[in-house]
Known about the structure:
It comes from Paraburkholderia gardini. The protein is mainly alpha-helical. The chain has two domains: about 25-155, no CATH class; about 160-389, Intergrase catalytic core (hpI Integrase, Chain A), CATH 1.10.443. About 45% of the residues lie in helices and about 10% in strands. The protein is built from 15 helices and nine strands. It has helices at about 60-75, 80-95, 105-115, 120-135, 145-150, 160-165, 175-190, 195-210, 215, 255-270, 285, 310-320, 340-350, 355-365, 370-389; strands at about 25, 30, 35-40, 45-50, 225, 230-235, 250-255, 325, 330-335. A three-stranded antiparallel sheet has the order 5-6-7. The chain has a two-stranded antiparallel sheet with strand order 1-2. Helix 3 crosses helix 5, helix 8 runs parallel beside helix 13 (about 340-350) and helix 13 (about 340-350) packs antiparallel against helix 14 (about 355-365).
Amino acid sequence: MTSSITTSEGPPTGLALHLPETAFTRSGVEFRPHDDVWHWTDGPFRLHLDFGKVEVHAAFLRDSLKHTLLVFAKRSSASHVINLFNVFQHFLALRVGVAPLVSITAQEVSNYAARLQDHEKWRVGTLNVLLQKWAALSLCGVEPDCTRYLRERRKPGNEKGAAVRTRDPEVGPFSEAEYSALYKAVDAAYGSGEVPRWIAVLTRLLFACGGRISQYASLKMSDLAGRQAPFVLSLPQVKTREVHSRVSFKEFDLSPQTGRLVLEHIEDLKSRGFDDNAPLFPATVVMTRGPREQLRSKGDLFFGHCTRDALSRAFMGIVNPIAPPTERLAFGPTPVAPKRFRYTFGTRLAEEGASKAVIAEGLGHADLQNVDVYFEGKRHLAAVLTIRI
């Protein structure tokens, strides 16, 4: 139960918390909740939570955190569990220089919220999800006034949409000139042998489908239908409540040029010994030195796949050095990151007159609330152009 903490040695109730020896994630990955480090690979996501780095004065706070995250690990995606752990670590990090934490009160959360920059205010909402579940499980460490405060306080949403709304030149959508220049630069570098084929393939697919990098990390060679035009790519959907990212798919028609390039890539992989069930972007191909450790067993559906982060790092590491200059950054190189392709996909749809429903469908959103930003970005650009004129 939740109650006031009077000692740093243990919970005031004197009741010990009992974690199971083993537990299973939503997708069936086995792990040991007792371990100080939770480490597993689940689909395109790699989870690594080091509870030894959770610096709290009372050990039972760390145990309560484990119990709470265990519930999310069983029911939610790995990325959600990572986000909850990270926001708690961020909450602790902003307490540097104050008295040791023995209980989470309304004042503690209020102080945390006050220290956040405007673009970080969304973290309070994520912390709220964690602490409300913590309290609902009747675990020690979260005071009643804290959960009341969080329920009553208006929690700002995630401000990630600001990059799209303002057409940020570093992290927002590419401009039309940047889009064309980057497309040509990657094609030219591939043609000259400066970059491998998988880079050209992934660049084309990022532009063509607007997916998240975790979706591309989940692709298999069998997801391309047709050996001649029309080419259709079945892109795995990761933001669902399914057990893993290869339960549901969204189909995208590829241009003949892009389809043929993907097919050439697949045929090359088959010549190296990969079969249809192999990943479209194998870790042994993407990571030039190969993965440092084998993260999955051969029976894992995602055996041989890159994790989301590994694919993203490898892609950016190769493409950014060849990125063309952009006028928007005083002719410095265009910063390239997978998210920018997704933002560009949605932005171009809005500029072409697509409805909110069409954009939501194209981006794989379950509702329309996340697509408003593409129309706000359109209005923002119009206002900027009017001022310049």
